[in-house]
């Protein structure tokens, strides 16, 4: 006998549509609240760059509509970020009736931790990562070049950075899910860890290669500048050291990749450990 309280398939779709409409309305309301502060929000987000730029430098707009479009886009992203907890609440309201008590006790901490970790990743990217990356780029600019960043390009950069770290901070949740659902075992993750690290660094290979080519073109000038800056304890000397370490890492990863393709990784590992 059917449960009289059990919803039909159409009833579930109707409820889902209602909740999605609520989510859009809430995001729209959040956007309306952000619109009066578009310039203030953009100023806040761009402050890590502005604090590092040389005196007399400023951000520029290379398109006619950029001074309006860029802050508006950032306000839309801000509204979506503000709406994330409400989205989770609506999602929970939709799936919770079909869960057992034990499953509810499992899902609630998972959803809360997902939201908290995502925001933590964005905060980490803003306060820790952004100043380091931007400081490196500005310090690496030749003396003959004046740093004047386009507001749209900067927005694209920071949005990618924020979302990249937001999702990166979700890795513990993703790992917990794949292990507890039986998709992969703990032992498999431990075995895969070195290869995952190698894959991660190889994915960053192209940017390191570009730096490598720049240095190769005029190595003597690079070496002379480096020694002089190191003697004078300049910050850029440590940036050069970082570039050197990245290049050496690139060489090592190239050899590791070749050894994996040639089924000779064990000998490669022994050689490097030695």
Précis, in short:
The protein is an all-alpha fold and 274 residues long. It has eleven helices and no strands.
Describe this structure in words.
- With 274 residues, the chain is an all-alpha fold.
- The protein has eleven helices and no strands.
- It folds into two domains: 1-184, no CATH class; 186-274, no CATH class.
- The radius of gyration is 25 Å and the shape is flat.
- 80% of the residues lie in helices and 0% in strands.
- Helix 3 (66-95) packs parallel to helix 5 (151-168) and helix 9 (219-231) crosses helix 10.
- It has helices at residues 9-34, 38-52, 66-95, 101-140, 151-168, 171-180, 186-203, 205-217, 219-231, 235-261, 265-273.
Key traits:
mainly alpha; 80% helix; 274 residues; 2 domains; 11 helices
Architecture blueprint of SSEs:
Elements: H1 9-34, H2 38-52, H3 66-95, H4 101-140, H5 151-168, H6 171-180, H7 186-203, H8 205-217, H9 219-231, H10 235-261, H11 265-273
Helix pairs in contact: 1-3, 2-3, 2-4, 3-4, 3-5, 4-5, 8-10, 9-10, 10-11
What is the β-strand count? 0
Indicate the low-confidence ranges by residue numbers: 203-218
Number of helical segments with 4 or more residues: 11
Which whole number gives the mean pLDDT?
A: 79
The secondary-structure class comes to: mainly alpha
